[in-house]
Amino acid sequence: MKKLLLLLICILISVQTFAQNPEIYEDWHLHNLIINGENHIPNHLAQALICTFRNEVGVDYFYFPNDNYIEAFLVDYAPSNDTFILLFYIAYQLGICSNQACLDFFVIYSPFYYSYAETEMNYEIIHNSNDSKTLIVTNIDGDQAIYNTEPLVLSIDENSLVTFIVFPNPVSETLFITSENLPIENLTVYNLSGQTVLIENQKVEELNVSSLSAGLYFIEITSEVGKQIQKFVKH
């Protein structure tokens, strides 16, 4: 009986390991995110957004940069086509996406995977003339994340260098926002799922967050030169 059980486990691991296209095991640099037909190109500081598919000891993982740490998801591949399902995340480690630009992009990028966990995602790998490869991941709503084995090269946007200060952090009741002599027009707070939970367009130098549940949030600060996102923790 034990030998039969061991044989079944070995067969399952073998199917799990070889059912998918082995070319997916790469470090993939995000080049474009298409949500509802709109293109979202990572800016110059968000190039640290690298996804990685790995097979370790017969188990498939998907490493996804989540704000300033990297989460590891279990991956289940369909045996007959280029499809995978992300299961629950199992661990995280400190990552390299901890700058302002990554925070700005994270509010858009994260729900692409977190909102579609445990649903089928199709993927296609394309070989390019410059010997690089392109990975296109499509969720059930038709949104797409487009990656390449080569990093995306973009110019620096000086507006992204404007600094806002958000304090205290962590916060219990009132969050204060200051800037370098730059008027703030609007404040919007998002939760980890990308949902809007607070909006303030009147008294924009402070925000009452006492109604929020404890956890990590993102505040989008709109000024005359554009938008910037900071993170804060609600006690």
TrEMBL record:
Question: Keyword annotations for this protein?
Answer: Signal
Q: Which organism is it from?
A: Ulvibacter antarcticus
Instruction: Print the organism lineage.
Output: Bacteria, Pseudomonadati, Bacteroidota, Flavobacteriia, Flavobacteriales
The record places domain Secretion system C-terminal sorting at 166-233
Q: What is this protein called?
A: Putative secreted protein (Por secretion system target)
Signal sequence coordinates: 1-19
- The keyword Signal belongs to this UniProt entry's keyword annotation: yes
- Stored InterPro entries: Secre_tail
